[in-house]
């Protein structure tokens, strides 16, 4: 199975006046890895975390590409990526001063032949999208690591109480924010005609479902470049108050 892909990372109109997001596309004829990171911490701290993540992942990939393609099993590759991210999280934690906050979300997608694996921490997302007879089937593969998604936080609370709680939307997990990180991992089989979309919250918070689905329809027709352009136009038109990043990965029919 072959793939076509395109990515974008933009500063938007963020008051920080820099882009703390990072994307990473590592491609090989037999295997591809895609990463979206959303740095946090203000000033240059978020940028340092996301930059460190993509640099370490790229270095790991380059050092192991022959083994990745020819020797390692799919699960071994996933475990290698997991270990690299875990070690990078520890490095960011250990090199951050006590009075500073430095961290990043991560959403990573590995595809090899008809297998996929995802690793994430935080609220950057990965969607799996397919055509239906009428419309699209859009499935979020990741689960946001936020306060309201922890059962113990919302027990016996009404929907109104949950949404009005001061902790609503707060991240509960990310890279580099504590001594050890808990990574989420999911694997599966890539069905024919699959489109994957990786994105930071600067995308999905500023594009409505109808507009998003229209852009995904474009991507499913193998026009990922035009789809990315349309998404940028919509997010910018909606104010783009945050950095934003997206990668689209579609099956190539050629």
**In CATH's first tier, which class applies?**
Alpha Beta
What is the correct CATH architecture? 4-Layer Sandwich
How many domain units?
Answer: 1
Give the rounded overall mean pLDDT: 92
Largest sheet: 5 strands, antiparallel
Shape: globular
List unreliable stretches of 5+ residues. Answer: none
**Neighbour order of strands in the largest sheet:** 1-10-9-6-7
Could you spell the SSE succession in H and E letters?
Answer: EEEHHEEEEHHEEHHHE
Strand content: 25-35%
CATH T-level fold name: Phosphatase 2c, domain 1
Protein structure class: alpha+beta
Q: What does it look like?
A:
The structure is a single chain. This protein is an alpha+beta fold. The chain has one domain (3-251): PPM-type phosphatase domain (Phosphatase 2c, domain 1). Helix content is 34%, strand content 29%. It has seven helices and ten strands. It has helices at 45-70, 74-94, 151-154, 159-164, 201-204, 209-220, 224-237; strands spanning 3-10, 21-28, 31-40, 103-112, 115-121, 125-131, 136-140, 184-189, 195-199, 244-251. The protein has a five-stranded antiparallel β-sheet with strand order 1-10-9-6-7. A five-stranded antiparallel β-sheet has the order 2-3-4-5-8, covered by helices on one side. Helix 6 runs antiparallel to helix 7 (224-237). The chain starts with a strand and ends with a strand. The model has no long low-confidence stretch (mean pLDDT 92).
């Amino acid at each position: 199975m072959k793939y076509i892909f395109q990515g974008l990372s933009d500063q938007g109109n963020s008051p920080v006046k820099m882009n703390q997001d990072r994307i990473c596309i590592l491609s090989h004829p037999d295997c591809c890895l895609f990463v979206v990171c959303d740095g946090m911490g203000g000033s240059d701290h978020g940028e340092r975390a996301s930059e460190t993540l993509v640099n370490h992942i790229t270095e790991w990939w380059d050092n192991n590409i022959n083994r990745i393609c020819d020797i390692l099993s799919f699960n071994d590759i996933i475990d290698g990526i997991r270990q690299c991210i875990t070690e990078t999280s520890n490095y960011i934690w250990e090199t951050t001063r006590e009075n500073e906050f430095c961290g990043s979300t991560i959403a990573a997608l590995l595809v090899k032949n008809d297998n996929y694996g995802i690793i994430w921490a935080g609220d950057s997302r990965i969607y799996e999208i397919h055509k239906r007879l009428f419309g699209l089937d859009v499935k979020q593969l990741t689960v946001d690591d936020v306060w309201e998604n922890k059962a113990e936080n919302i027990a016996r609370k009404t929907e109104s109480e949950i949404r009005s709680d001061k902790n609503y939307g707060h991240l509960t997990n990310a890279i580099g924010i504590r001594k050890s990180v808990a990574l989420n991992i999911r694997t599966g089989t890539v069905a024919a005609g699959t489109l994957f979309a990786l994105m930071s919250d600067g995308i999905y918070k500023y594009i409505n479902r109808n507009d998003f689905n229209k852009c995904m329809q474009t991507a499913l027709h193998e026009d990922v470049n035009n789809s990315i352009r349309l998404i940028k136009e919509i997010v910018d038109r909606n104010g783009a108050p945050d950095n934003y990043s997206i990668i689209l990965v579609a099956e190539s029919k050629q």
